[in-house]
UniProtKB/TrEMBL annotation:
This protein's record includes keyword Transport: yes
Organism per entry: Streptomyces jumonjinensis
PROSITE patterns: MFS (PS50850), SUGAR_TRANSPORT_1 (PS00216), SUGAR_TRANSPORT_2 (PS00217)
Gene3D superfamilies in alphabetical order: MFS general substrate transporter like domains (1.20.1250.20)
Keywords attached to this entry: Cell membrane, Membrane, Symport, Transmembrane, Transmembrane helix, Transport
UniProt-recorded name of the protein: Putative proline/betaine transporter
UniProt cross-references to InterPro entries, sorted A to Z: H+-coupled_symporters (IPR051084), MFS (IPR011701), MFS_dom (IPR020846), MFS_trans_sf (IPR036259), Sugar_transporter_CS (IPR005829)
This protein's record includes keyword Transmembrane helix: yes
Entry's transmembrane regions: 20-38, 50-68, 80-98, 104-128, 149-168, 180-199, 234-251, 271-288, 300-319, 325-345, 357-374, 394-412
Amino acid sequence: MGRDHWKKIWVGSAGNMVEWFDWFVYASFATYFAGAFFPEGNDTAKLMNTAGIFAVGFFMRPVGGWLLGRVGDRKGRKAALTLTVTLMSASALLIAVAPTYSVAGYGGAAVLLIARLLQGLSVGGEYAASATYLTEASAPRHRGFASSFQYVSMTAGQILGLGLLLVLQNTMSDEALHGWGWRIPFIIGALGAAVVFYLRRNMLETEVYEESGDDTPANERGTVKALMAHKREAFLVIALTMGGTVAYYTYTTYLTKYLSNSAGLPKQTATLVSCGALIVFACLQPLAGALSDRVGRRPLLITFALGSTFLTVPIMTMLQQVGSFWPALGLSLLALVVITGYTSINACVKAELFPTGVRALGVALPYAIANALFGGTAEYVALWFKDRGVESGFYWYVAGCAAVSLIVYLAMRETRDIDLNRVGGTPKPESGRESAGLPASR
């Protein structure tokens, strides 16, 4: 790939990293600030309250996906990416200064909720804008490799959050962390988002967007009306996301809590396990993305779905019994290796389904709906099963979601060789089913 390709990937990825740092530190530090916004009670109940607010952020993602997807298709990918980071900076700052329950009662939880809603708006647009930007900015034969940097940067943001947590755990007392130290990552996140705002204002637009031969009328770009011409593609995005997003949030955001709250590992050990596993996970993304450029997207997706369907229950069961660092790390790595088949290429697969005039919205809205229904609720569902005394029920839930996506992967067609610059892009009525990746009607 040329120098301009790498520059676009760097700027897009750096901003994505800060966005997801802000998004994930909420989950990483939840065990420390859960008691600050709610009255005394059961620890699991407090975590459920903060997990509920975490999930609410996901339910704003469809709104953010619609709003910022529309901006991305009408004003350009650069405009959408700049707006997302502005919203994220504001939300991180709100959490950093939110008053505690002892100061403002449930007023602090209300501020936390508003901030999480803003984060949901931001991330709802960020995923699609960055997925579209990275896919369009790459050389055609390297789309899988280039778009894999979305999850490299997402994971890097989470690693930085966990790394900061480890530093604070080892330099501050537990009392200080619970009292005020949990605010530090949100202050850092707000400052980082301000830097990214400057970088994104000077980023280059993609050539695919600027030179689009798409036949979508200008006044219909980024509209739900235009998206409805691609209903099958939108449904496909929801279905192929379902299993992947549940598995991803189970083994990333929820893993640290699971290891400490269910397996009984010390918080520092659980954090170290998550951080170490995620570092390896991030390194795997470009390798798997490059592999998809050679063998296609479907083989990787099918491998993920098979592994997640049949390995989730034994992996989660064994994780609950681990008593030390190395077994926990090994099992976590096994799970994340399986998930790599989805995370490394899901961005480009979704972008390859839509024409330029509706690509950002086409990726954003259905993906955000799937995340609101499945990804954002994964942690809450897990804690609900635990609170009811049937924690293993959650393992089967994750495996079941993967099984549904497996059916979709087996039915869809390959998207690797689709031309993003093809003139028109709107499927003909008689071939619409095939363009959605489903078998043609006979």
